[in-house]
Amino acid sequence: MFDELDPLLHSQLRLAVMSLLISAEAAEFTFLKEKTNATAGNLSVQLDKLQEAGYITVEKSFKGKKPLTTCRITTKGIQAFEKYVNTLKQYINK
């Protein structure tokens, strides 16, 4: 019997965001948007879902006069990502 894949991380865009954040201390919204080829609206919605789950933190500030959104993965997010990867390995190595 395999563990169930986390449906929150099973979304392509949310998984891409988590994959980028797992290897970076922090990432700006524009970086995530560029790397995932997501629209600003869709990325914003997906970041909200990850934040609501406690997987990431989202900090809004300003860089000069421009708004700056910075995302960081949380300990809970790291644990969820690692569990997701390990569950995938179960399916692959059946």
UniProtKB/TrEMBL annotation:
Positions of the Winged helix DNA-binding domain:
13-92
Q: Name one Pfam family in it.
A: HTH_34
The record's listing under InterPro entries reads: WH-like_DNA-bd_sf (IPR036388), WH_DNA-bd_dom (IPR027395), WH_DNA-bd_sf (IPR036390)
Listed name of the protein:
Transcriptional regulator
Organism name: Pseudochryseolinea flava
